[in-house]
Amino acid sequence: MNDLDLGTALHDRVADVHPDLDRLVTASMRAGTRIRLRRRIGVSIAAAAGVAAVAAGAALIAPGGDPQPLDGGIASEPTASAVPLVAGANLTTPQGTTVRVELASKFQLSGEMLSSPPAGTTATFALVLQEGFVGGDLSWLTTTYPGQIVATAGAPGGLVDRAPVTVTVAGWTCEWALADDKAACTSDGGHVASLVVRPANERASWLANADKGATPDVYTTQTRGTIFVTVQGGQGTTNAEIQSLGKTLRWVH
Amino acid sequence: MRGRGVIDDVKRNHTDPSGGFADFVRATGTQLHRAALLLTGDHHLAEDLTQATYAKVFASWRRVNATDNPLAYARTTLLNTFLSHRRLRRNSEQPFDLTVGPELEAPGLDHATRLDVLAALAVLPALDRTVVVLRYWEDRSVADTAIDLGMTEAAVRTRARRALQRLRPLLDHTDLSERTLS
User: Fold this and answer.
1) Could you read off the pLDDT of B153-166 as tens digits, one per residue?
2) Contact B21, A135 (CB under 8 A)
3) CB A206 within 8 A of CB A223
4) A218-242, pLDDT tens digit by residue?
5) Tally of domains in chain A
6) What is the ipTM of this complex?
7) CB atoms A132 and B56 under 8 Å
8) What is each CA distance from B49 to A179, B2, B42, B104, in whole angstroms?
């Protein structure tokens, strides 16, 4: 690399690196939506704690059923033109797009952090909109339906609802973040690795890419149903440890 | 970073359901991912860092998109996310360590064997590495780098000079430019 300055060397080194932009868009929007949701939850919880006598939420209904009043709750007064928040209802956004309410229920968002209402707060309800609205601005909903927690169908869920594999090698502990399709693993020695759940139909391209699966520092499982799992190392983790970790994975289901 | 024209086009595009965010990522994602790779030295960590950055951008997209330069916001977010993970190993949004680990000590390296650029960068402390990426990959000025990182221009020059001194023997270069005074 004679006669090249550092800037040129840096550009040359990464010139052939091309991330999967479609996957980046999808994953970023999903993770970003969760950040929005958490912010909104924080606001909702704070408001609920301050006005304990007022229950938030407009209606609760089983998917496909008829609207029913919330148990013990008094709905926040929606605007005169607001459609009741029930599963199956069609809402019109300020931009004129119609979105359908898929689910409106108490704290049912994939178990990440809404499995139960926080102690000392009044009921708050989660509204899940149809897939495809993940990137939309939801502020109009919280304005029209004050006190609601709003999520999108694509926001909370990952590829799987439960951890798909267990780690059986001694000395490693993994913590799953299912919504991120990942687990963070730590060894007793302080080394780190990650397990990543990926769509089965991406396995061939994953294994063919030298920047992804075709390297000795990654272990790739066989497909299992609609997914496969990869093991990738982090700080201090050797290739041998990654391979060992991968080979001891056991499918849960 | 370059490509303001592309970004301006993205900002005018409000037809997609993400409010232009998807187009923004497609226009800037390669550049940010490459910067993340230079910072972390690892493809997978770079992927995580880039995703974490865009997730934060998306969470504030309406506000970010209203600014004059959303890419500058994204770049700052990338740098802050990278540097913050040096200080805080665990983060609720991104539980993975985005760093390359303890910096290698240059004296322990076999300088007869020239290193890959990424490996050479890993020798540097995180902040020096960030300065190098901003100055020599992003082509930011000393003044702009100082603003980006919240440090004085003198500190940027010092770190850049020190980084070059450490990188020079590790890379098969004969004329790494010391553009530390501009």
Assistant:
1) 999 999 999 999 88
2) yes
3) no
4) 999 999 998 999 998 876 788 898 9
5) 3
6) 0.75
7) no
8) 17, 20, 10, 21
